[in-house]
């Protein structure tokens, strides 16, 4: 893929390029985009990394794979482009924010506004074929994004990791708890939320309280 790599993440990307899986993964992605309609748009595959330099990361949210409907995915987990209807999980995220800190539901589901404040929104799998959820699993993305989480854990301090659902919790199992804060809850999907595993987690106020304790500006959710 001839997509410019995020300069601020150069040491991380350089290390991954030396790993056996990386070349195979890039070949798979290039071929998938050549043969099928895939999301996010190719120039937004690295959007989460482009938006936040490692030293600026204050919060990490881990998703699973991109939305697979036309025009939805923009490279940030749970985020959709301006003007689109909010997917159910995003609706529940906004409802929890409203209940937790009183912020009303926003007009746009585009979460770039969080990224500019230091929130890294990282899907475990960064690409997907249209209409086929999970279609790019087990091609190497999981290794890549686990390495990204480990890179942040090892090389930085005082990051809050939000792990929603069993998949994300397993993904973050090696985060150094002596250096970082980890908050877990059920996934915001309707299935999990309706069973009582999402609402009331108060993660958004907890994140801000912790950031303030570390001398960092809180997130405007």
Summarize the entry for a quick read.
The chain is α/β, with parallel strands linked by helices and 221 residues long. It is built from nine helices and six strands; from the N terminus they run H-H-E-H-E-H-H-E-E-H-E-H-E-H-H. The radius of gyration is 17 Å and the shape is globular.
Helices, strands, pairings?
Layout (H helix, E strand, L loop, with lengths): L9 H8 L2 H16 L2 E2 L7 H5 L7 E5 L24 H14 L10 H4 L3 E5 L4 E2 L11 H15 L4 E5 L1 H6 L9 E5 L4 H5 L8 H11 L8
Parallel strand pairs: 2-3, 2-5, 5-6
Antiparallel strand pairs: 1-4
SSE class: alpha/beta
Radius of gyration: 17 Å
Average pLDDT works out at: 96
As a percent range, the share of helical residues equals 25-40%
Quaternary organisation of the protein chains: single chain
Report the sheet-strand fraction: 5-15%
Approximate shape: globular
Spatially, the strands of the biggest sheet line up as: 3-2-5-6
- Quick one: biggest sheet? 4 strands, parallel
Low-confidence stretches: none
Number of helices: 9
- Please give the alpha-carbon distance between the first and last residues: 34 Å
- Count of extended strands: 6
In N-to-C order, the SSE pattern is: HHEHEHHEEHEHEHH
Describe the protein's architecture and organization.
The chain is built from 9 helices and 6 strands. With about 220 residues, it is an alpha/beta fold. The strands form 2 sheets. A 4-stranded parallel beta sheet has the order 3-2-5-6. The chain has a two-stranded antiparallel ribbon with strand order 1-4. The longest helix has 16 residues, at about 20-35. The chain is globular and about 45 Å long. The protein starts with 9 loop residues before the first helix and ends in an 8-residue tail after the last helix. The mean pLDDT is about 95.
């Amino acid at each position: 893929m001839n997509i410019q790599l995020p300069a601020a993440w150069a040491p991380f990307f350089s290390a991954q390029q030396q790993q056996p899986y990386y070349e195979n993964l890039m070949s798979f992605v290039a071929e998938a985009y050549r043969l099928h309609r895939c999301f996010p748009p190719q120039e937004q595959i690295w959007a989460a990394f482009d938006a936040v330099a490692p030293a600026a990361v204050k919060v990490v949210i881990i998703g699973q794979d991109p939305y697979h409907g036309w025009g939805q995915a923009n490279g940030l987990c749970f985020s959709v482009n301006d003007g689109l209807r909010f997917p159910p999980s995003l609706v529940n995220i906004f409802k929890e924010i409203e209940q937790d800190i009183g912020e009303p539901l926003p007009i746009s589901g585009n979460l770039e506004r969080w990224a500019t404040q230091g929130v890294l929104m990282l899907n475990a799998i960064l690409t997907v074929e249209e209409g086929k959820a999970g279609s790019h699993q087990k091609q190497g993305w999981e290794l890549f994004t686990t390495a990204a989480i480990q890179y942040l854990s090892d090389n930085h301090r005082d990051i809050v990791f939000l792990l929603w659902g069993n998949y994300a919790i397993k993904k973050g199992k090696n985060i150094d708890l002596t250096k970082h804060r980890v908050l877990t809850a059920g996934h915001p999907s309707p299935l999990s939320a309706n069973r009582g595993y999402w609402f009331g987690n108060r993660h958004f106020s907890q994140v801000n309280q912790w950031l303030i304790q570390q001398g960092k500006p809180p997130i405007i959710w």
